[in-house]
């Protein structure tokens, strides 16, 4: 209809409607009529995009590594991007140029530039293990002024793989396999050595236990001997004390006997002296006088004295007649007395 067209966009597309070089409409998800001869329409997708990449770099030891990853970004300032790249669409709503590929390539170039300087300073083994560091390098490089001038925002960076050449990968696998085998052999050696060491410690502990038991038994024997010696010494001391007590008792008994003997001797001497002193006046006296002093009135006693006096004077007596009755009476009295 005389050059008038209608066009419609979804809500994830930011639209700029230029008329004679001036922006007449702009916004997300627009739907409008336009006059084709003097209109130009720019449509910029606003959703996030996942940009896969893979590039090769050379390490410090002149080995090639392939770095594979993904960058997630979104267009945060479509008007700025429209000033840099061409996102003009035709009447059918399709872009006239594929400048989205230019945008992706610029982002990949910035990522590779940020990575190459880091990879060139490390060797192959370090590069293979440096995924996180490479992510940080790319993330830091994509915050440069060149990226900001494109009006985009980097949402994330992920390194999916870092691979060496097939030949070098096989060499590294062989080296790693040999190293792992060596580590396994070393682990076996360490395990056996540990087992031997543990066995030695167990035997040493058993020997130490036996030595400790022997030492304890020795101490017990010594203690028992000390106890027996002490017991024997105590018994000897008890015997000595008993003997000393017996000796002391015997000495005291001896002293007592000696003292008693001495006392008896002195008493006997005293009694002898008293007796001698008492009898001394009578020693020189005639027995007849002594007999008379007794004042014995027994007739028989007097007859006996008479017989004795006659016996003493027998040479003076001519004849002596003693009647049998007198003797018989004396003898009868003696028998009766018995």
Automatic annotation (TrEMBL):
Task: Give the UniProt subcellular location, in the record's own words.
Answer: Membrane
| Domain of life from the UniProt record | Bacteria
Organism taxonomic ancestry? Bacteria, Pseudomonadati, Bacteroidota, Flavobacteriia, Flavobacteriales
Q: Which organism is it from?
A: Phaeocystidibacter marisrubri
GO cellular component terms given for this protein: membrane
Q: Which residues form a coiled coil?
A: 213-269
Q: What is this protein called?
A: Membrane protease subunit, stomatin/prohibitin
Q: How does the protein's chain sit in the membrane according to the entry?
A: Single-pass membrane protein
What Gene Ontology molecular function terms does this protein carry? peptidase activity
Q: Record's InterPro entries?
A: Band_7 (IPR001107), Band_7/SPFH_dom_sf (IPR036013)
According to the entry, every stretch annotated as the Band domain falls at 18-192
């Amino acid at each position: 209809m005389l050059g008038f067209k209608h066009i419609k966009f979804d809500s994830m597309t930011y639209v700029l409607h230029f008329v004679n070089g001036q922006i007449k409409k702009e916004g997300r998800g627009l739907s409008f009529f336009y006059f084709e001869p003097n209109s130009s329409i720019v449509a910029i997708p606003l959703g996030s995009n996942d940009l896969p990449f893979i590039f090769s770099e050379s390490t410090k030891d002149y080995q090639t590594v392939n770095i594979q990853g993904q960058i997630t970004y979104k267009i945060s300032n479509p008007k700025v991007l429209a000033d840099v790249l061409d996102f003009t669409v035709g009447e059918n709503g399709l872009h006239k140029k594929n400048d989205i590929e230019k945008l992706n390539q610029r982002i990949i170039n910035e990522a590779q530039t940020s990575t190459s300087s880091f990879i060139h300073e490390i060797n192959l083994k370090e590069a293979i293990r440096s995924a996180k560091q490479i992510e940080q390098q790319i993330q830091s490089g994509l915050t440069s002024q060149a990226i900001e001038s494109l009006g985009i925002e980097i949402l994330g960076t992920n390194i999916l793989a870092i691979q060496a050449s097939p030949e070098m990968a096989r060499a590294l696998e062989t080296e790693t396999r040999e190293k792992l085998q060596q580590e396994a052999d070393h682990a076996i050696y360490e395990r056996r050595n540990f087992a031997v060491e543990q066995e030695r410690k167990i035997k040493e502990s058993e020997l130490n236990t036996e030595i400790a038991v022997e030492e304890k038994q020795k101490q017990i024997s010594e203690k028992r001997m000390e106890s027996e010696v002490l017991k024997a010494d105590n018994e000897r001391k008890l015997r000595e004390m008993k003997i000393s007590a017996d000796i002391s008792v015997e000495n005291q008994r001896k002293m007592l006997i000696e003292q008693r003997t001495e006392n008896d001797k002195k008493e006997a001497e005293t009694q002898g002296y008293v007796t001698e002193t008492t009898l001394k006046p009578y020693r020189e006296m005639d027995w007849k006088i002594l007999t008379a002093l007794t004042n014995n009135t027994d007739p028989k006693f007097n007859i006996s004295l008479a017989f004795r006096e006659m016996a003493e004077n027998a040479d003076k007596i001519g004849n002596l007649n003693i009647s049998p009755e007198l003797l018989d009476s004396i003898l009868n009295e003696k028998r009766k007395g018995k």
